[in-house]
Structure formats: C-alpha cells, structure tokens
Amino acid sequence: MRDIDAPSLPPLRRAEIERLLPIAPEWILVERVVECRPPDYIRTCRRIEAGDAFVAAHVPGGAQSLRESVLIEFAQQSAYLLALLSRTEHDGASQPRPPERCSAQFLAPACVGELLVAEVTLDDTADGVVLHDATLSCDERIVCRVRMFAAPDPSAKRRVKSPASRVTAWEGRARRRDIPGAD
Length: 183
Known about the structure:
There is one protein chain. By secondary structure, this protein is an alpha+beta fold. It has helices spanning 14-20, 53-58, 68-85, 169-176; strands at 32-37, 41-47, 101-106, 115-126, 129-138, 141-150. The chain has a six-stranded antiparallel sheet, covered by helices on one side. It is globular. Mean pLDDT is 82; it is low at 159-165.
C-alpha cells in the first residue's frame, strides 16, 4: 500500500464491467465493483443465486456450495479489473495481463444464497510481474485466500530502463553476449 490513500473510483455496475473485461458476458462473475482505489485495492461482489445459469452450471448436482475453481476465477477477474482500472496515460496502449498462476487456501464453503465479496490488494510489482492477494468472504465469513501472479507479455518488446538507451532488452543481451547481427 502507498503512504497516501489513492482517490477512490465510483462503484461500477455489471454493464460497465462487461465493457472493461475482455471476457464473454456470460462468463463474467463480478456483478459489481463496490470500492476501488487504484492501483492498490478493489472490492467486488456477486450474489450466489441458484437460479443464475452460470452458478447452476458450476454447482454440481444440486449441491449448496460453489466449486473452488469458481472462487479462484472470481478472485482473478477482480484482480484483473483492478489492473485495468489502474492504467494511466503513462502506460499508453499497453494492456495489463490477467493473473496466470495462483495459490489458494480454502477455509469454508461459499453457499448458494450468500453474497460473495472479494477484497483484492496489490502486494508487489517487480520487472512487470504483479502479485495480488485476495480474500473472499461470504456474510463476514472468510471462505478463501488467493495469491495471484501476472507476468508481462513475453512477446512484447521491452526497452532497457536507461534514459540514454534506445536498445531493446533482447538487443542489449545480444550485445553483451557478442551475438552477431545485434547491431
């Protein structure tokens, strides 16, 4: 977290979330962004209703609790929303990447009829790798903790971070290793 609180964005509804996330609307789990202080924090929610087609498809055999994979997906979509809402003009056209790897600890079931809330915080960033922590709760009961990693796009050309240098990272490594054709 930063020493100074970042300004909070107004809450977002489903239609605004659908415009932001590059996911088919029927696969979007986040119903509402309750609070967002980019780039450090976001709180999202979704009511778990049995009549919801997505929830019904992922609640096995009429069970009353969600599968763990759905909880992880909810946390990842929330973290990706935080990354999207944290973009600045300085970022230009670069698109943040969704979390690709995670570890999760499941503490209690998320049951049908409850309000699922995700609180995601930015833990650390280094060399384009972003680490988010998420806590998912239902009715004040913590159901899951997730740590997620998002790595930069390896196919994107990155520049060596030197103000005088206009050399790509690949060119810099090639020159240091005396690979022909790097000039």
